[in-house]
Amino acid sequence: MAEQRTPSTLFRLDGSISARTYTAIAIAMFVLVGVVWWAIAASGIVKPIFLPSPGAVAGRLAEQVANGQLMDDIGVSVLRILGAFLVSAALALPLGLLMGRIRFFEALFVPITEFIRYMPVVAFTPLTIVWVGVGELQKLVLIFIGTFFALLLMIMDNVHRTPREYVESGRTFGMSETRILWRIVLRAAFPTIWDSFRLALGWCWTWLVLGELLTAGSGLGFRITLAQRFLDTELIFGYILVLGLLGLITDQVMRLAGRLMFTYAK
Questions:
Q1: What are the distances in angstroms from CA 8 to CA 2, 13, 16?
Q2: Of 117, 102, 128, 188, which is closest to residue 154 (Cα–Cα)?
Q3: Burial profile 200-209: b = 16 or more Cβ within 10 angstroms, e = fewer
Q4: 30-69 per-residue burial string, b: 16 or more CB within 10 A, e: under 16
Q5: How high is the pLDDT of residue 48?
């Protein structure tokens, strides 16, 4: 009988690797993508107007940094995201907590939430303009619609997965239903709720760009639209890369914060 080989830990199902190895692999992937991009641009196969070189994009971004435009656009966009995200999270947390453990609230809100969640967010753009105009509130409303309803269902699911034994233990100690909900269920579910917050913050970047592409006079999405009018693909690529970088940074910050806050869940 042939001896069965043990696969490398890098490729084993549910295997583990060190943080240093993980980081090295991730960086290598980014470098590989950059090299392939540079090679295609340098070969001349694709015209620069369609695929500018990494150097040209970096130079264009450097100009935006020098004149202060990039930081202004980032500041405006980040404030819009934070405003809409905080409102969505503040409303979704208590409501999702109730929906996850009390059947009355589940029956009351889940069907209508599911109904709204499947409506395309882009279809609400004309309505949000009619409702609140094209000012800052319109962007916040659009991001809220795209984020709140899906986040609400995710939090409900996080809370619903909390073991029933935790609730029964609270009752055994004579705790009220409200106290059990806030002191036991919420504490047990909050690590996974935080992951839902992290994912929802990522969606906010998508809906932000949608709002800024159509009705804004500032921000990252607006600058992309403006660059498109003048066929400034170097600036378009640059701002897309900035959006990706900002999204990655916020995601990693949320991950780190979760590890620091929820040591009891490890």
A1: 18, 10, 10
A2: 117
A3: bbebbbebbb
A4: eeeeeeebeeebeeeeeeeeeebbeebbeebbeebeeeee
A5: 92
Which of 253, 243, 255 has its CA nearest to residue 81? 243
Q: Is the pLDDT of residue 33 over 90?
A: yes
- How far apart are the C-alpha atoms of 139 and 176, rounded to whole Å? 41
Rounded Cα gap, residues 76 and 25, in angstroms: 34
HEC string of 60-100?
HHHHHHHCCHHHHHHHHHHHHHHHHHHHHHHHHHHHHHHHH
Tens-digit pLDDT profile for residues 50-61: 999 999 999 999
Closest by CA to 219, choosing from 64, 72, 67, is 72
* CA atoms of 74 and 241, how far apart (whole Å): 12
Report how far residue 67's alpha carbon sits from residue 52's, in angstroms, rounded to the nearest whole number. 21
Pick the CATH number of 54-265 from 3.20.20.140, 3.30.1490.110, 1.10.3720.10, 3.20.20.70: 1.10.3720.10
On whether the CB atoms of residues 9 and 17 are closer than 8 A, the answer is yes
Tens-digit pLDDT profile for residues 211-241: 888 777 889 999 999 999 899 999 999 999 9
